[in-house]
Amino acid sequence: MNEGYTVEMKQIVKQFGSVLANDRVDFRARAGEIHALLGENGAGKSTMMCMLSGVYRPTGGGIYLHGRQAGIRSPKDAMKLGVGMIFQSFRLVQSLTATENIILGESSPFWRGRGWMKTKLEEIRSLADRFGLAFPVDRPVWELSVGEQQRVEIVKTLYRGADIVILDEPTSVLTPGEAEQLFATLAHMKSEGKTVIITTHKLKEVMAVSDRISVMRKGRMIASMAKSETTERELARLMIGKQIPAARPAQARSIGKPLLTVKHLDVYAEHGRKALGDLSLQVNEGEIVGVAGVAGNGQKELAESLAGLRSWKRGTVAFDGMTFKTASVRAAMEAGISHVPENRMRSGLAGSLGIVDNLLFKSYRSPERSTLGFMRTARNRAWAQTLVEQFDVRTPGLDTPVRQLSGGNQQKLLFAREISRDPKLMVAVHPTQGLDIGAAQGVHRLLVELRETGRGVLLISEDLDEVLQLSNRILVIFGGAIVYETKGCEADRERIGLYMAGLTEEGEAV
Amino acid sequence: MNQQTVPAPLASGETAAEAKTKRLPFRLEFDPSRPDSPWWITIVSVLLALAACGIFIAVNGMNPVTVYAKMLTGAFGSSFGLTETLVKTIPLLLCGLGVSIAYRISVWNIGAEGQFVAGAIAATAVTVYFPGLPAYAAIPAMLVSGVAAGGLWGLLTAIPRTFFQVNELITSLMLNYVALLVLNYVVFGPWKDPQGFNFPGTPVFTEAMSLPVLGGTRLHLGLAFALAAVALYALLIRYTRWGYEWRLIGANPEAARNAGIRLSRHIMFVMLLSGGLAGLAGMAEVSGVAHRLMYGISPGYGYTAIIVAWLARLNPAGLIISSFLFGGLIVGGYSVQTIGLPSSTSSMLQGAILFFLIAGGMIGKFRLRRNV
């Protein structure tokens, strides 16, 4: 009757207030397969998986596990039934070690004895090794990279005995190399007979790893098929409902004079860790320079130094005819450097404030926005209104708290603010992270527009496709230094990948 | 948005767990991202606090309704009661305003008590060391020294916070005790009135050192200071660049840093202001009400101010209302002593109000949903 389906979700309906997130959705997955749930942001795929893992309860419909109806009322219930979910934002205690996080909540004897933690460490290490998930088991989580933290999360679910493992947008935080490793792990889990479900909006990944694919759009299940029966193009059509135009290649155009020149920069991060060592780079007017690299190789520190948020020990930063002596946000802003930070809600926008206040962030000191210490409120509102219209920010009103906007609209708002200041250079870090295809294309258009109008763009991204598609020049950052540089039109994906992994063409470690 | 129809859930094959939820018609859902709870939650919280305290009063053999009526008439029912209430409102309003400014940028100053005492001591120092000053010099000198001392006391919290990441909750609380001990030292020691029959207080101030009062009442010029300060605060947060910067820091300090706002400078300045306002309250109290520095100069104004600020949700108009209500609560607390209840009844009420306010804020994040 159930034909070996481990997961069956039948006619699932989920309503949030007046918004229908899932409309009579059917979903099935088998043991020993990697099932990709594909859909744009807001298609309802995460909601579906949250109901499977007990975070939400469906408004209607039934969930069946191994052919039996499951009354999942909480994540704990789900765990007991062998369902484990790895969320986009990890549920880890930063100050505890990886092992402590994994065994957290497990009932253990009150007196643990001397060798107890040692045996647990060994147990977890061997479990991690079995699935090819290497991470330092005895280090506090805050010391681990994002990729390693995800591995901790995976081992946590496996340790708790999950045979149905859900990963919500697992590669959105990973670098290409880390993603490859993750896919290998998923394949291993599959071979051990686990049901692996990933939600994603990246077509390449779907084609690379999955066995079956289900496509959702606007809260409905559109199609479900085996990978062999479909193509990337068809999936894209199913997912967005219209044919996507091919990406416009970066056109070669004349490049202006040097804008930003960084020479021999040494930057130390927290706890005295050397984040950048002898880093040099140059950005000219009218070009997009892409910085590709695996997370944690100094990208964040590089962007922060340029934005004036982080000071450097050695080296020079020259910009548009002047030299920055020390890091100063104000000086960088006034010189014309705009910074689109990595995490827009954490450091780019104030979620509880309205549109106007968020747009004023960097320009409120200018005489047009305030005089003699007083804000020019009426004028600022009119100005905000024109920006909202110009950048097509979809919002119910100018006072709507920005955390209520969708990710794409938040990013549009952020770009509206940065571009309205007429920057000479934009430092954009992961500008399309977490955005759906449409919103990401909008961001790409804005970046290209900046280039066409003679501004410089330093695009720091872990999305290699994005870097390849937009950049005039591509730099590869590894271990806090630029290890490779190539022209955008001559870029070779494989070679870049090798440098990102810290290998030269001969295959030696740098 | 239009409501869409939802098909009926499957009736068959319910598990025991599902059946159990079905029996309850409602369930609670927690939504931490919910914005501020509605205004009536505040009123309901205060009413619930009164009801809860009513139980204790009833246990003590009194009718809570009579007791509350007595408090109400005691505090607001006569011109004497009303001016007394206003006299208590002044320090509460100034201290409440001080802590509100700090809370706006998420600096948890609970040291208004110490800053108040520091201001009182410093203002009194002027009278001790320059006893012959005429009124036009004495009052401004006392004002300046009181505000400066309160502000500096606030800075003692701000400096470790900005430079060494020391938690301001701890330092500001600890500094309260330091200020109180300094107060005890001066009133029991060097500044004690030689003609005071061993009363722990300084000599009574001369006319020149006292703030002018209204007619024959005890209501003094401090009320004008307090109202002017609130008006300035309202202007500041609504229309100025500082107000905007504080809003930004309060909403997202990391983003404020990205916008080029120097957080450390703001924290120092706000704590200086916050302490200065409490110091002003201390000056007004010695110069306008007590007319001397004495042991126990503050009956805990600095702590009550925290409740005043929360009740007002840091809103300027709300601060005026809540400090007036709490002034009335203190005066009403005195008036119930005549019918045999301890004056700490009002402390109990204060505590209960804060407790229910915080609980109300928490409950406001829950939603009651009908089970389908």
What topology does this entry show?
The complex is a heterodimer of chains A (510) and B (372).
Chain A: E1 5-16, E2 19-30, E3 34-38, H1 45-52, E4 60-65, E5 68-69, H2 75-80, E6 83-86, H3 98-103, H4 116-130, H5 146-159, E7 164-168, H6 176-191, E8 195-200, H7 203-209, E9 212-217, E10 220-226, H8 232-240, E11 258-268, E12 274-284, E13 288-292, H9 299-306, E14 314-319, E15 322-324, H10 329-335, E16 337-340, H11 344-348, H12 355-360, E17 370-371, E18 374-375, H13 377-390, H14 407-420, E19 425-429, H15 437-452, E20 456-461, H16 464-470, E21 473-478, E22 481-487, H17 493-500
Helix pairs in contact in A: 14-15
Chain B: H1 16-23, E1 26-30, H2 39-59, H3 64-76, H4 79-104, H5 112-129, H6 135-164, H7 168-188, H8 222-239, H9 241-251, H10 253-258, H11 263-290, H12 301-311, H13 316-335, H14 344-363, E2 366-370
Antiparallel strand pairs in B: 1-2
Q: What do these coordinates show?
A:
- Chain A: Residues 7-243, 260-504 form the ABC transporter domain.
- The complex is a heterodimer of chains A (510) and B (372).
- Chain A has 510 residues and is of the alpha/beta class.
- In chain A, 33% of the residues lie in helices and 26% in strands.
- Chain A has 17 helices and 22 strands.
- Chain A has helices spanning 45-52, 75-80, 98-103, 116-130, 146-159, 176-191, 203-209, 232-240, 299-306, 329-335, 344-348, 355-360, 377-390, 407-420, 437-452, 464-470, 493-500, and strands at residues 5-16, 19-30, 34-38, 60-65, 68-69, 83-86, 164-168, 195-200, 212-217, 220-226, 258-268, 274-284, 288-292, 314-319, 322-324, 337-340, 370-371, 374-375, 425-429, 456-461, 473-478, 481-487.
- Chain A has a 6-stranded mixed sheet, with helices on both faces. A 6-stranded mixed sheet of chain A has the order 16-19-20-13-21-22, with helices on both faces. A 4-stranded antiparallel sheet of chain A has the order 2-1-4-5, with helices on one face.
- The model of chain A is unreliable at 243-250 and 506-510 (pLDDT under 50).
- Chain B is an all-alpha fold and 372 residues long.
- Chain B has a domain at 91-308.
- Chain B has 14 helices and 2 strands, in the order αβαααααααααααααβ.
- The longest helix of chain B is centred in the middle third of the chain and has 30 residues, at 135-164.
- Chain B is globular and about 80 Å long.
- Residues 1-21 of chain B have low confidence and may be disordered.
- Chain A binds chain B through residues 10-11, 13, 15, 18-20, 23-24, 58-62, 69-71, 73, 77, 307-309, 329-330, 333, 339, 341, 346-353, 357, 360-362, 364-365, 370, 373-375, 377, 401, 403, and chain B through 1-4, 6-10, 13-18, 21, 33, 35, 239-245, 247-248, 251-252, 254-260, 372.
